[in-house]
Design a protein that fits this description.
Elements (H helix, E strand, L loop, with lengths): L7 E3 L9 E3 L21 H12 L2 H10 L6 H29 L3 H4 L1 H4 L5 H33 L13 E2 L2 E2 H19 L2 H30 L16 H18 L1 H5 L2 H4 L5 H33 L12 H7 L3 H23 L1 H10 L6 H14 L2 H5 L2 H29 L26 H20 L2 H4 L2 H19 L2 H4 L12 E2 L2 E2 L5
Antiparallel strand pairs: 1-2, 3-4, 5-6
Helix pairs in contact: 1-8, 1-12, 1-14, 3-9, 3-12, 6-7, 6-14, 6-15, 6-16, 6-18, 7-14, 7-16, 8-12, 8-14, 13-14, 15-16, 18-19, 18-21, 19-21
């Protein structure tokens, strides 16, 4: 980024980083957390560590293991993994560029396509999704502490029984673990992005060390002959059935990353250069996820021999329950704590930081980044995520319906930046309410973007409600494609008087070039 011009004032150091605010920025669109960064300091390793933290969680572990239980050959799973994660890598590079160039988070970037006021629509949608997942991930991590407590103090077992000592569907022991996790995450978040960066820089490699040690221990105990890359229990698929399952696996990989992929701009804004971001994405996505998945299947497969299966005869894919059953107290304690820390990492980077920016974008003068994060944290308790997680039907309709809208939001953002705006951003106009500015549209709202989200969401939501599980796995692709096409058609052929108050498209002067903005932007 180029140096700030003389008509700027440097904001005080905020929790989200030191930013630059020009005198003309509208107060209802600006605070020190949303404004362009004064300096972008993250290297490729910081981005790599971000993705390590995003992948290393109980949910990521179970997801990776489930891909090897689809009934297709191991090589087919690996091909699906590679293809899926390469698609994610490409899409993350696309969504990263506007935020890295302008130095602003995702909700501010969406002002380019939705308008300075309309950007609250994608911000609120993404924020609500993050709140639900934040609660669920916190609950899953808290289970680890409950198991650890019972391992050392078996007398606490009655307090872990929700029927004997429970409140709102969670036992007293469960509440203790949940509150502990809630406080630990809030502490890390409250100390700001620099602390979060240091936390994930350490946690990513540290979790790998323990995971490799755990896998090695189980493989030695089980014997290499008992390690299989096929975790399915039924007969294997062949022919066209295996091909369709491979395609489904690819779609599942992309859908799994759709949340952090959409708001990756919240982190790419800190990248020194776009090249650094791309390098971090390469190591953090294709390389990291493939290695992680192979490590998971080895651990789960060997674990089935060493610790056995669950009461229903199924292979245990939850790492917390795997380490809890290991007949080695030190290994069990280390494993449980590691996966708890790993879950804290993904929760902060995927479900704490992003809604903090999202909610701050709604009312910048009243909601700071810290306040936005705490709104998300409190909301995660109010939804009682343990009840939601234990009701598959409720979580299916709630999350899949919200998730079906993520695709259109992504498609609109990408088509607008690359095809409509030709990679040009007028940074000052992102913070201006003045009519005739680049992103004023109609009183701050772009009607084409709003219509595109509604129209493009109909098909994926209908598949969530009435479609099969196979069809539902493609809802993100449906939404992204539909959103991109409808938005492009609207912006290309709709009368300018329908889109802009002035009846004509304002010129955008700032040009993205070589990973930096031209001097006219800042």
């Amino acid at each position: 980024m180029s140096a700030p011009s003389a008509d700027t004032v440097t904001a005080h150091e905020s929790a989200a980083g030191e930013s630059v605010i020009k005198l003309g920025y509208h107060q209802n669109l600006t605070n020190s957390d949303l404004a362009p960064l004064k300096a972008q300091k993250w290297t490729w390793y910081n981005i790599f560590a971000f993705w390590m933290s995003d992948v290393h969680s109980v949910g990521g572990y179970v997801f990776a293991g489930s891909l090897f239980a689809l009934g297709i050959a191991a090589w087919q799973v690996l091909v699906a993994l590679v293809v899926g994660i390469v698609i994610v890598n490409v899409l993350c590079n696309l969504v990263a560029k506007p935020s890295q160039l302008a130095g602003v988070p995702y909700p501010v970037t969406t002002r380019v396509s939705f308008g300075v006021k309309g950007a609250n629509i994608p911000a609120i949608i993404r924020g609500c999704i993050a709140v639900v997942w934040y609660g669920i991930q916190t609950y899953l991590a808290s289970v680890a502490f409950g198991l650890l407590a019972l391992k050392f103090w078996p007398g606490l077992e009655p307090w872990g029984d929700v029927d004997q000592h429970g409140f709102l569907g969670l036992s007293i022991l469960g509440w203790a673990g949940f509150i502990l996790m809630w406080i630990l995450q809030a502490f890390v978040f409250w100390n700001g992005m620099d602390t979060i960066r240091k936390f994930i820089d350490f946690c990513g490699p540290a979790v790998y060390v323990v995971m490799i040690a755990l896998a090695a221990y189980l493989i030695v105990e089980a014997g290499w002959d008992n390690v299989s890359f096929d975790l399915s229990t039924g007969p294997g698929l062949s022919g066209w059935s295996s091909v369709t399952q491979m395609i489904s696996a690819i779609a599942l990989v992309v859908s799994y990353f759709s949340g952090p992929m959409l708001n990756f701009g919240d982190f790419s804004r800190y990248g020194k250069t776009f090249s650094e971001v791309k390098k971090g994405n390469f190591w953090g996505l294709p390389v990291n996820f493939l290695f992680f998945s192979i490590l998971v299947v080895c651990t789960v497969s060997a674990g089935a021999t060493v610790i056995g299966r669950d009461d229903d005869g199924n292979i245990i894919t939850d790492p917390v329950h795997i380490v809890d059953r290991i007949d080695n107290t030190t290994a069990a304690v280390l494993g449980v704590l590691t996966f708890a820390i790993a879950t804290i990492g993904i929760n902060i980077v995927a479900n704490f930081v992003s809604p903090a920016f999202d909610f701050s974008n709604v009312a910048p003068t009243k909601i700071s980044w810290r306040t936005g994060g705490m709104i998300a944290a409190v909301g995660s308790v109010l939804i009682t995520p343990w009840n939601l997680f234990n009701n598959p039907t409720a979580i299916h309709y709630t999350m899949d319906t919200l998730g079906a809208v993520i695709g259109p939001l992504f498609g609109i953002l990408i088509v607008d930046f690359y095809l409509i705006k030709k990679q040009k951003i007028e940074v000052d106009d992102l913070f201006s309410m003045d009519p005739g500015k680049s992103y004023s549209y109609r009183n701050g709202w772009n009607p084409v973007a709003i219509i595109s989200v509604v129209v493009a969401s109909i098909l994926p939501i209908s598949f969530v409600i009435w479609g099969t599980a196979y069809q539902a796995s493609f809802t993100w692709f449906m939404g992204a494609a539909a959103g991109a096409v409808v938005y492009w058609l609207g912006m290309t052929f709709a009368p300018k008087s329908f889109i802009y108050d002035t009846g004509e498209e304002p010129p955008v002067l700032s040009t993205a070039k070589d990973g930096k903005l031209e001097p006219s932007a800042l």
